[in-house]
Each structure stands twice: as structure tokens, then as C-alpha cells.
Amino acid sequence: VLPGGEPAKRPTAVDQILDDLCAYKLRRREPFLAIGGGCLLDIAGMAACLYRRGVPFVRVPTTLLSIVDASVGVKNGVDFCCRATDETYKNRIGSFYAPSSCLLDPAFIASQDKRNICNGFGEIVKLALVRSVDLFELLETHGAALVESRFQVTDNIPANVGTRIIDLSIQIMLEELGPNLWETTLERCVDYGHTFSKLLEMVPGADIMHGEAVNVDGFFCCILSYLRGYIPRETVQRVLNCMQSLALPTHSADLNPTLAWQSCKDAVEHRHGEQRIPLITEIGESICVSDITQEELSRALDVWKEFEP
């Protein structure tokens, strides 16, 4: 049993699983089950990849976030503290290693508190913004009620709407990741919300979960889209209303000009020489841009604050 959450997502946790697998003398073709949230599934995937040069494992995600995000794809990553810089980098080491299967049971969501469920919605909103107006409209109509009911059927929620939202989210992820499984193409719309959020999550003492950071990033990127003329102010307000109905944060004091520009520089490093930052052109459509400037970020931060609750 390992603790969950971002603080536990370290190489030492991978070592602990490797110790247990070795002590158990797990065979080359013998699978093990990884039951937990996204961070635990990342750690387990890394261990499965390394032990005996690869053993099968089964993902069993137990949070809304891990059901719609970590359950899909073949990436595993852990945070790494570099001794040379004395800085910790999010997902700096990892592997491409697929589970042998993934078991999805939305009943696990009922065991989560409200904040964890809202955290999962952060990734779902991201997918709706870049790929599906239908998914976005479902979130506008039923999202708040699903938060309150913990994805359980009530008199106010149609019987299949929770399942429909999860199915649509996973379908979008599969369609985006499947043709580009090894990320040979680095312009990926599913990276929406993952440019500024990485450093937001790594701010010392920051109390922000992954989906929350993705949502703050995603709303800031809406402001960038608005200032570029890609979307009207009415769309920005519509996105804000949806996010607030899901009790998701849209602002963070830690997102300042220094962090924003460093995030862009990190993106250039990680995405092979270009920013490749996804921005929406309307709800359900997106493009990648690589020409965001410091001046543009400063202006966007000023406008972003105008929408702060």
C-alpha cells in the first residue's frame, strides 16, 4: 500500500514497488494489479516497465481523474529532483509502457470527496474545449449535479449522463492518442492546459491538484485565445461559467509573469524547440501556436485578472 497524490510520485515509490515485486518473486508473465488514482498508476507503470525488463500489469483507476486520463494511453511518469539544479521537475522521468488491461468501474467515484471529483472534471473540461462541443454542453447542463451526486443517478440526472460524459472523454483521448501513441507528433491538442500547469503544481507549498492546475491553465489560455481574436469575450464568459459551476479554480496567485514565461521556455525544451501551445479557436476546436511573447503573456495576465471572482 502506497500513499497517493503528487508528493508520493517519486522514484523512491517506484523502488518500493520493485522491492515488493522482487520479494514476491513475481514471474515474467505474471501480472499485478495497480488499484488507485493517477499518481499511483504512474508509479506502478514505471515499476512494471523496469521489473524483469517488463511484466504485465492491470490498471484499476479509482478516481474520476484517473478514469478519464491515466487509464488511457501508455505513458508513465514520476517527478524527479535533479541534484545539479536542486529543482524537482514534474514527470521528468518515465516510460511508454502499456498495461495488459484496464478495468473501469465508475462506482469508485462515489467514494471520492467533492474536491477530488471536481479535480477530475478539470481534465474533462479540457477535452471538451479542444474537441467536443457536445461534451461541453453536457457539462454545462449536468456537471454541477454530477458533482453533488458523485456521479450517482438521482431524480435530477438522466440515467446515462454520467456514463456518457466518461465515455465521450475516453473516446476523445483514444482518438487523439491512438494514432500518435509514441508522440512522434508533438502538436497535441490534449496538451491543452499542460503548459503553465506543470510549474503551478511544483510551486513549493502550493495546494493545487493536477486537474485544478490544468483548469487554471486552460482558462488562462482562453484569455490568450480571446486577445488573439480567436474567440469572442462571450465564449470566455461561457467557459468561465461552466468552470465555476463545477467548482473548479480559474485563477492562482502563483501564475505570474515570471512563471508564465518560464513555462513557455520549458515548453520549447520539452516540445523539441517550439512552444506548440494549444489554444481554442471555438469550443470544440483548437490549434497549436509557437509564437507567444512575454509582452503577450503580461497583457493576458492583466485581462485574466479582470475575470477573477
Distance between the termini: 40 Å
CATH class of the largest domain: Mainly Alpha
Q: Describe the biggest sheet?
A: 3 strands, parallel
Q: What is the overall number of helices?
A: 11
Order of helices and strands: HEHEHEEEHHHHHHHEEH
**Outline:** globular
CATH superfamily of the largest domain: Dehydroquinate synthase-like - alpha domain
Unreliably modeled segments: none
What strand line-up does the widest sheet have?
1-2-5
Give the integer mean of the pLDDT values: 96
Reported by name, the CATH topology of the largest domain is Dehydroquinate synthase-like, alpha domain
Integer tally of domains: 2
Radius of gyration: 19 Å
Total E-strand runs: 7
CATH architecture of the largest domain: Up-down Bundle
Strand content: 5-15%
What is the helix content?
40-55%
Structural class: alpha/beta
Summarize the structure.
The chain has eleven helices and seven strands.
Textual characterization of the structure:
- This protein is of the alpha/beta class and 309 residues long.
- The protein has two domains: 6-104, Rossmann fold (3-Layer(aba) Sandwich); 113-306, Dehydroquinate synthase-like - alpha domain (Dehydroquinate synthase-like, alpha domain, Up-down Bundle).
- Helix content is 49%, strand content 13%.
- It is built from eleven helices and seven strands.
- The chain has helices spanning 11-24, 38-50, 64-70, 114-131, 133-149, 161-177, 197-202, 210-227, 233-245, 257-270, 294-306, and strands at 32-36, 57-61, 75-82, 87-96, 101-102, 277-282, 285-289.
- The strands form three sheets. It has a three-stranded parallel beta sheet. A two-stranded antiparallel ribbon has the order 3-4. Strands 6-7 form a two-stranded antiparallel sheet.
- Helix 5 crosses helix 6.
- The model has no long low-confidence stretch (mean pLDDT 96).
- It comes from Phaeodactylum tricornutum (strain CCAP 1055/1).
